[in-house]
Protein 1
Amino acid sequence: MKFVSIRDLRNKSAQIQKELPEEKEIVITSNGKPVALLCVVSGDTLEETLIALRRARAITAVSNMQMHSMKTCNDRITLEEINKEISDVRKTRKSL
C-alpha cells in the first residue's frame, strides 16, 4: 500500500490519480500519520463501497467497545444498568 503526504497530494494530484487504479488504495498522511484513504470507485460501485466502509467502521467500533468494557470490567453489568446508562445519555442529549 502506498503512502502519500497531503503536500504531495496537493502538488502531484494528477500523478496520484493516474497511480490510483493500479494501487487500489493510497493512504494520505499528515506529519507522517495516516488521516485519509483514497480508494478506487466507480459510479457502479460507489454505494457498495460506502456500505462496506461503514460496516467495517461499525464492526471496529463494536470490537473496541467490547475490548474497553473487558479492560474496565464493565462487561459484567446487568441489562438494567445498561438501560439506565442509555437513558441517562439520552436525557443529556435532549438538553443540548
Protein 2
Amino acid sequence: MTVTVYAKPRCPQCEATKRQLTRQGIGFDVVDVTADASALARIKAAGFLQAPVVMTEDASWSGYRPDLIRALVKQPHQVLA
C-alpha cells in the first residue's frame, strides 16, 4: 500500500497524522505543499482545502483522522472515504 501525506511545516494536524501513521507501523511519503506548487495544485483540484491530505490507492481524506489511519491497518484495501 502506498500512503502519501501532503503536509506543511509547523502544522499540528500534519505532525499528529505522521506520528499516528508511524505508531501504526504504516510507511508513508511526505510531500511539503509549501515547497511543491504542483502538489498543492493537485490537492486543491481534488477539493482539499486543509492540511494534511492523506492519499492511498483506495482512499483520501484531509485533517487528522486517527480512525481512518487505524482502518488502514485493519483493512488496507477497503475504500475508506
Protein 3
Amino acid sequence: MRKEDFYFDLPEELIAQDPLEDRSSSRLLVLDKETGEVEHRVFKDVIDYLEPGDCLVINETKVIPARLFGAKVGTDAKIEVLLLKRGENDTWETLVRPGKKAKIGTRISFGEGLLVGEVVDVVEEGNRLIRFEYEGIFEEILDQLGQMPLPPYITHQLEDKNRYQTVYAKHSGSAAAPTAGLHFTPELLQKIEEKGIEIARVTLHVGLGTFRPVKVENILEHHMHSEFYMVSNEAAEKINRAKDNGKRVFCVGTTSCRTVESAADENGRMKECSGWTEIFIYPGYEFKVLDCLITNFHLPESTLVMLVSALAGREQVLAAYDEAIKERYRFFSFGDAMIIK
C-alpha cells in the first residue's frame, strides 16, 4: 500500500480559513459505506442518522494555548516554542523554531520574564525538552501568554480562542483540536440525548503528529506518534450497552475512533482504562467497536484519510472527496463534515 494511493488534488481556495458563525450550519456529506451512495445535508441533520439506543462517542480533550513566542535570554533572537507533551517537574517536550538557536542550556524568556524555559535535552526528531520556571499557576500564565496552535494551513488570525475548542472540551492537554467535534452545539447535543442516544465521553490528547506528513512511500513503514487516552467506567458501559443491544457506535472524529479501538479488547469489549496509543488504522483493519464515523475532510496522503479509507474503502472515500470538491465543500479543521454510515 503506497502513500500515493491516498492522493487527491485539492484546490487551495477550499481550505477553510475561518469557522462559521453557527457551528452546526456546516455542510454534511453522508457516505453509505455499503453502497457508496452520497447525500448532501447540513450538519444539524446528523440527528436524523442516529437512532435511540445508539451511542455517540465524543472526545472531551481541551486544546491548550500551546504556542509561545519568546526571546533567547541575553539576546534579541526570537524563538517560537510549541508545547507538545507534558513531563514531570515542569518539563515539556516541545517543537522549537528555529531549532539551531535552542541548544542545550539555552534559556528563553516569555512575557518579559513571566515564564522562563531552559533547554535540557534534544530528543526524537529534534524536539527539545524544556524545563520551565515561573511564579504562580502554569495554566494561568499559559492562558495569558500562549496562542492557539492552529495548523499551518490556516493563515488567518483566530479572533475567538473558543472557536478552536469543542463546546464540551474539559480536560486540558491537546496541541490540536478534535475538529469533527467543532460542529456540535449544546442545543444539538441536548436534542441528541432527548432522542434516546447515549453520549459516551472519552479523552484523547491530540498531538501534533496528527498533522505530520507520511514520509515513507510504503505506508506500512510509517510510525505513529503516541497519544494519551482515558476511558471512564461510565463511557465503557455505555458503549458496551449499545453493542449488547445490537445498536451502533458513532465516533465523533478520528481521535474518538482511535481511543475506543485502542482501549477495546479483542472481542470489542470496553472497560475503564488509560494509557498511550500509537494505533495506525489503514485499509485492512478490522474495527472492533466503531460502526459509523463523523469526521471532517482530511489532507491528501494523511494517516486520517487512510483511517477513513479503512472504514469505507479507499475508492469510495476518494470518490466522495471528488464529489465534495466538485460541490465546493470546505476542507480541513474549520471546514465541513462527513458522516460514514
Protein 4
Amino acid sequence: MGYQSMRIVILGNAGSGKSTLAKSLARTQGMPMLDLDTLVWEPDLVAVERPDELVFSDLAQFCRESDDWVIDGCYGDLVEAVLPHGPLLIFLEPGEDVCVANCRTRPWEPHKYRTKQAQDEHLEHLLGWVRSYYHLDGSMSLIGHRAVFDAYRGPKRLVTRLAELEVMQSAWLAAAATSRARAASLAR
C-alpha cells in the first residue's frame, strides 16, 4: 500500500477555530499551512484586497507545491477552488456565541496586524462581521458555507462542537503514526 496524501481545507466563521485547528495539524503532521487571509489582503495594508487573479493564482500554486497541505479561511469561493484536489473539507460551525468568545480571546496574529494593539482596535469591527455571518448571504456567510459544504461530493465533516476536534486530531495522529510505521517497515 502506497503513501496517501493528506489534504485538508477548513471553512467557517471568524472565531470558529479554523486557524487553531490548521496550526495544530500543520505542526503535528508536518504539513504546509495556508491562511487564506494572507492571500486575500495586501501585507501590512489594512483593508486593501489583492486582485482576484493573483489570489487564485497563488492559491493554485500553493496546492501544487505539496502533496500534503492544510488551508483555512472564510472565503467560500476560494475553498471551492481547491475542492477539485479532493481534500477533506471540514466545516466548523460552533455557533455565534463561541465564535464571539473566541475572537475576544484570540492571541495576537502578527501575520495580520503589526501590533496586538492594532488587532484589538479592530475587534469591534470583527465582532460585527462575526454576527452578520448568520444573517447575510454570499460566499463568506453561513448560507454560502453551507452551500459549498452541501455541494461537495468528496470527504467532508461538519463540526458543531469544538470538543469533536480533539477526537479528530487524536485519530489523525494515530493514523499518521501507523502510516509512518508501515512505511518504515516496507523500506527495510
